[in-house]
Inverse folding.
């Protein structure tokens, strides 16, 4: 594979990353080619040593998604990290994706239930004293506050579980599929200096 073919395939695989990030990555790989050519290697040898550009692009996009999750910890970053890891194609999607979708669906259902419980509690707290709630107005207010507090607790607990789920998926990918930094950073060899007597 020539340098131009490698870079074109790499650029194609990096579509979706921010432009500056993609340009920096391409510049790094251009430098790899320049260094290899300066060392007397052919473009084909350098390309073979760097590996499949499409796989490199998937790994780099996955790493970008994982780094974004590590920095932001929001639903958008979580989705980006999950889809980036699944996009590697390294995880058996036929097994993992249905399991993941079931867990995500269950968590989403519980989130909706917590939101509904919060609004029901608010409705009981506000309307209960005026509609003859059993136990009187104070019982209605306390019952409404209790339901709202329970909903907030369930929502917080589900948020923690969701963060653990995303972190677990990232951990699984890093553990099982040479992700990512160790595979992308060049190995450094300690320099040997001779001591003169």
């Amino acid at each position: 594979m020539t340098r131009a073919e490698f870079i074109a395939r790499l650029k194609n695989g990096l579509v979706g990353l921010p432009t500056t990030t993609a340009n920096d990555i391409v510049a790094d790989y251009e430098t790899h080619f320049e260094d290899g050519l300066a060392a007397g290697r052919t473009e084909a040898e350098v390309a073979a040593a760097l590996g499949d550009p499409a796989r490199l692009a998937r790994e780099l996009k996955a790493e970008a998604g994982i780094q974004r999750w590590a920095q932001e910890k929001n639903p958008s970053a979580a989705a980006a990290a999950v889809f980036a890891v699944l996009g590697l194609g390294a995880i058996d999607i036929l097994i993992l994706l249905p399991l993941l979708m079931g867990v995500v669906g269950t968590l989403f259902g519980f989130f909706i239930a917590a939101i509904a419980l919060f609004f029901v509690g608010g409705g009981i707290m506000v309307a209960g004293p005026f509609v003859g709630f059993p136990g009187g107005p104070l019982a209605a207010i306390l019952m409404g506050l209790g339901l709202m507090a329970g909903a907030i607790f369930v929502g917080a607990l589900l948020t923690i579980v969701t963060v653990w789920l995303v972190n677990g998926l990232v951990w699984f990918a890093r553990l099982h599929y040479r992700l990512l930094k160790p595979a992308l950073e060049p190995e450094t060899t300690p320099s040997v200096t001779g001591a003169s007597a």
Residues 59 and 88 are 6 Å apart (CA to CA).
